[in-house]
């Protein structure tokens, strides 16, 4: 039973003292581990021999472990500095149990089952950031929703191991408390962000990563910070679905990305890729990127604005469609021997329409698949006979009838062809050779993906785009096509689009493109936490001078100095006033200061005039680090950043005219300031500041903001694993029943000696993993075993009524052809099976990767068992009774790149880079290997093993009692015998080996190159098979 902590100051101080002691012990222990590993690495370095492969392997393992433990030490030190910032007391409404938890950056615990401090990302911690006390609910993945009554929400100020103060409040950090936090310097504010996350920010952070988000956030609303916390939250709560390398952070410039680089480690996030939009598109060109090419910025007056529009992307789409139609045959396909029509023109067009949006290579594959199915049916029919040579010739001819997947053209030449077509339509597109802006790169990446790519290359699983208003629809449409299996978090503010002609001035088109699912989300962050009320009012008045739509901004109640606007006689006076202002800020202790200039030439002049008189932070886009000092920056490099104080240099009418683009530029400059803002100018002050705002301007802007309706977001009810299973099972069976009754029939090869109809196996319901990974109340998710009921049996009557026939779940599916839709391997994020650690046990060897644990276990001299499970797994099911007998010696040899296990008759070789397993005989002749690229995959209910069977290799499935052996050929067949069968599905090769898979599970062998080859096993949470040499 958890003991509820006291609430008096004395009791709180005692609790803090005890927590600090535990945190200190953790730091000491981890620091000792780091020192030990460092010592081991040093000893290895002294004895390192490049010829000693085992020593190299040990070095790499130890070095990797040292890196992980060093990160753990950084987290422990961080937790030690400020153990916690909040506390919640609540009563579980179902059990009546009273509970209390302290909330911090990470877990602090003597006993892992009873933590003293829980992580802010844990499900239960979400109620800390809720709106008020009273009845609340929170969700745990896989378990459902819990109802609690929140009776206390307390916030702590801890400094130098001392409890300075604490506050009880209905909401997290009310305006009074926020004012105290935000009144500090920028560096101190960053350290308190987690403690002051507001409800509207928390709602965005905790949105599910399987859906797209677009967030319109006012300047200073914390868009960048919320995006980074969202990544941290996803990595913590969805670690099985997302790894750090599955995230891409896209920023508008390198300076913003440098800032983000400094923030992420504070949130325990390491290894996330960050790049500009230009760098992402270059990455998506892979080997086709010409290193001699130059990436140039979008330039006003040089880059045609239409290149960034959605209409331009649609023209590119139509160009590709015409290109494909011109080169892929679309007339009816007839056999020369008898005039038999294999595929009609109408059938080809139907497949084409169904393949809309697919790449050229995938269209060819779809068409070839339909054609080869018809051809196989014809060659196996009884009306015409074909010799073996004729069959071989026909198969060879029609397998490439629609073309080859490989495309040997040049992407750059194809892009020039597109521009030529556009010029003929009247578009004036001038471009220097080998110079590409972001929209040129977007088009090239789309052409590569649409026309050239012949094998799918996995990229990110979730893309976070900051300062999203800076990119036009051409970039987003290309990105969505190129990274079609990603989800997106898109953060921006249309009021900060400083290049009016090229970015987004409203969200409508982007919402139509990205928010297509009912649970996709468009949200507003209205509150500005950055600026004082005086600075916020000054900046908003600038916005009112624009003719565009604006969203409302709600500053928190934090007062400061009035904005100072100072006239200067000339450049000399401007410089003197700038130096005087900067020195005054330094005397006040303001640490981060920016002098913002309208352009790069002006910024360079200011740097030279201040050199030697003020300490300036060097400005280098690629390597600039944020710290104390003064930075002289142009507007474009201040996007997404904030400073203790800002000086806007020469806000004259010359630099900021009264047009919408200038309105947004000046607004961005003004809203960078946390505490103080000074505006200097010479000549005539810009009318955006000098001219008063009329009531008409204010009313028009407010009306436009209120008239903008946000998309209705459906509430997402958290479901348990059992509820998810039930829904999937009934939905799957209904779909199958409808398809059987009304849908097209699969092609059946006619046989000369028809066999008795053994009936059809109804597809088993999709089941959740029996060891489903569910979230815990206070920390990382744990594993709990759930026994799920047979939902199919309970709803047998519904299914029978829908299908019009009785189902028999006991029948075997051996020899059945699967539905075409089931042949495509499930989509997934990029999988990294590369071996990171090797652990040798008694009778087995475990190889750990980012994806999971691969176990190689020699059973005998002829048999090897291969198992794989996601995550770190120390125990696997007992071996099958057919392979209970074990015996014989084996040897393990490890090098930096390979691990080998050798028996007298077998050699198993694992490539550490890819994690792929190869099987060789005693003479080291290759028998079978897994595919190098993503050799295996586990979804919620299916395991996939991708094998590289040799061309022409004869594969035969063992039919067991009363069934003939089944030749697989170039087809896909079920090789299992139903869930009631105790017989293991087996596959024999003409090369002298056999594969066996668990009994009672639906197993399919697919030897069709466009889908596999692979073997899939359903209703499983792990991969498990036996390799046997004859």
Question: Can you describe this structure?
Answer:
With 1030 residues, the chain is α/β, with parallel strands linked by helices. Helices cover 32% and strands 21% of the residues. Strands 26-27-28-29-44-41-40-37-38 form a nine-stranded antiparallel beta sheet. Strands 1, 2, 3, 4, 5 and 6 form a six-stranded mixed beta sheet that branches. Strands 9-8-14-15-7-16 form a six-stranded parallel beta sheet. A hairpin with a 3-residue loop joins strand 30 and strand 31. The longest helix has 39 residues. It is globular and about 95 Å long. The chain starts with 8 loop residues before the first helix and ends with a strand.
């Amino acid at each position: 039973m958890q003991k509820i902590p006291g609430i008096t100051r004395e009791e709180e101080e005692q609790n803090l003292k005890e927590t600090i002691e535990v945190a200190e012990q953790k730091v000491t222990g981890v620091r000792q581990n780091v020192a030990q590993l460092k010592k081991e690495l040093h000893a290895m370095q002294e004895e390192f021999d490049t010829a000693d492969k085992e020593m190299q392997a040990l070095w790499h393992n130890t070095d990797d472990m040292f890196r992980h433990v060093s990160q753990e030490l950084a987290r422990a030190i961080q937790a030690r500095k400020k153990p916690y910032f909040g506390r919640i007391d609540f009563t579980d409404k179902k059990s009546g149990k009273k509970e209390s938890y302290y909330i911090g950056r990470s877990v602090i615990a003597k006993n892992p089952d009873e933590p003293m401090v829980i992580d802010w990302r844990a499900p239960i911690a979400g109620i800390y950031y809720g709106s008020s006390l009273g009845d609340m609910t929170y969700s745990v993945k896989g378990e459902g929703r819990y109802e609690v009554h929140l009776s206390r929400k307390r916030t702590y100020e801890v400094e130098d191991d001392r409890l300075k103060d604490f506050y009880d409040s209905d909401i997290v950090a009310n305006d009074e408390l926020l004012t105290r936090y935000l009144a500090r310097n920028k560096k101190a504010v960053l350290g308190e962000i987690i403690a002051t996350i507001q409800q509207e920010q928390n709602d965005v952070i905790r949105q599910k990563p399987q859906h797209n988000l677009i967030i319109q956030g006012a300047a200073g609303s914390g868009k960048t910070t919320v995006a980074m916390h969202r990544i941290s939250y996803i990595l913590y709560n969805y670690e099985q679905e997302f790894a750090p390398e599955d995230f891409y952070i896209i920023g508008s410039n390198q300076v913003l990305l440098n800032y983000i680089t400094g923030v992420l480690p504070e949130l325990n996030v390491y290894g996330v890729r960050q790049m500009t939009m230009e760098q992402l598109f270059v990455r998506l060109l892979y080997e086709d990127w010409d290193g001699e090419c130059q990436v140039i910025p979008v330039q006003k007056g040089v880059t045609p604005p239409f290149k960034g529009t959605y209409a331009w992307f649609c023209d590119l789409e139509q160009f590709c469609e015409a290109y494909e139609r011109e080169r892929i045959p679309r007339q009816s396909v007839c056999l020369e021997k008898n005039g038999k029509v294999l595929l009609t023109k109408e059938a080809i067009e139907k497949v084409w329409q169904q393949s809309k949006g697919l790449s050229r290579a995938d269209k060819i594959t779809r068409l070839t698949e339909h054609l080869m199915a018809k051809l196989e049916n014809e060659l196996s029919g009884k009306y015409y006979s074909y010799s073996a040579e004729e069959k071989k010739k026909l198969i060879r001819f029609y397998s490439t009838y629609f073309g080859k997947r490989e495309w040997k053209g040049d992407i750059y030449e194809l892009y020039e062809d597109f521009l030529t077509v556009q010029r003929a339509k009247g578009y004036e597109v001038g471009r220097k050779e080998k110079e590409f802006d972001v929209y040129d790169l977007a088009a090239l990446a789309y052409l590569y993906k649409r026309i050239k790519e012949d094998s799918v290359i996995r990229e990110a699983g979730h893309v976070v785009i900051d300062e999203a208003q800076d990119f036009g629809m051409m970039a987003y449409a290309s990105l969505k096509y190129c990274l079609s299996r990603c989800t997106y978090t898109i953060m921006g503010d249309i009021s900060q689009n400083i290049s009016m002609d090229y970015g987004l001035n409203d969200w409508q088109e982007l919402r139509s493109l990205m928010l297509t699912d009912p649970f996709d989300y468009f949200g507003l962050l209205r509150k500005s936490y950055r600026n004082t009320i005086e600075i916020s009012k000054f900046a908003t008045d600038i916005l009112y001078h624009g003719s565009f739509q604006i969203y409302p901004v709600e500053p928190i109640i934090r007062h400061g100095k009035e904005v100072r606007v100072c006239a200067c006689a000339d450049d000399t006076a401007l410089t003197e006033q700038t130096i005087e202002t900067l020195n005054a800020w330094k005397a006040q202790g303001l640490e981060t200061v920016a002098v913002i200039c309208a352009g790069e030439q002006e910024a360079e002049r200011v740097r030279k005039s201040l050199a030697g008189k003020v300490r300036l932070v060097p400005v280098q886009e690629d390597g600039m680090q944020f710290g104390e000092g003064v930075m002289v920056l142009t507007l474009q490099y201040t996007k997404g950043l904030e400073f203790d104080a800002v000086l806007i240099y020469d806000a004259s009418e010359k630099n900021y005219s009264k047009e919408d683009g200038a309105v947004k530029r000046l607004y961005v400059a003004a809203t960078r300031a946390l505490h103080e803002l000074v505006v200097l100018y010479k000549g005539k002050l810009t009318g955006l500041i000098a001219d008063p705002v009329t009531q008409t301007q204010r009313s028009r802007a407010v009306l436009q903001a209120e008239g903008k309706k946000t998309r209705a977001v459906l509430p997402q009810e958290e479901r348990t694993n059992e509820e998810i299973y039930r829904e999937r099972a009934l939905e799957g069976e209904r779909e199958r029943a409808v398809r059987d009754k009304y849908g097209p029939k699969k092609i059946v090869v006619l046989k000369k000696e028809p066999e008795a109809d053994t009936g059809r196996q109804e597809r088993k319901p999709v089941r959740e993993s029996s060891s489903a990974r569910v979230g815990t109340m206070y920390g990382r998710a744990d594993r709990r075993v759930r026994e799920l009921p047979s939902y199919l049996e309970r709803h047998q009557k519904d299914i029978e009524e829908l299908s019009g026939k009785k189902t028999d779940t006991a029948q075997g599916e051996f020899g059945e052809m699967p539905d075409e839709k089931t042949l495509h391997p499930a989509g997934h994020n990029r999988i990294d099976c590369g071996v990171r650690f090797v652990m040798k046990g008694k009778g087995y060897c475990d190889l750990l990767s980012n994806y999971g644990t691969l176990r190689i276990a020699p059973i005998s001299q002829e048999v090897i068992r291969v198992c794989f499970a996601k995550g770190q797994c120390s125990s696997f099911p007992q071996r099958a009774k057919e392979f209970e007998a074990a015996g014989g010696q084996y040897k393990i040899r490890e090098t930096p790149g390979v691990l080998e296990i050798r028996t007298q008759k077998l050699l198993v070789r694992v490539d550490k880079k890819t994690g792929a397993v190869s099987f060789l005989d005693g003479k080291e002749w290759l028998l079978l290997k897994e595919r190098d690229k993503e050799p295996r995959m586990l979804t919620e209910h299916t395991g996939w093993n991708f094998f590289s069977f040799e061309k022409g290799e004869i594969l035969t499935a063992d039919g067991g009692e009363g069934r003939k052996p089944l030749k697989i050929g170039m087809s896909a067949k079920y090789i299992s015998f139903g869930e009631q069968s105790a017989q293991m599905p087996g596959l024999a090769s003409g090369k002298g080996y056999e594969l066996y898979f668990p009994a009672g599970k639906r197993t399919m062998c697919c030897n069709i190159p466009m889908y596999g080859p692979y073997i899939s096993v359903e209703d499983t949470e792990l991969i498990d098979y036996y390799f046997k040499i004859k």
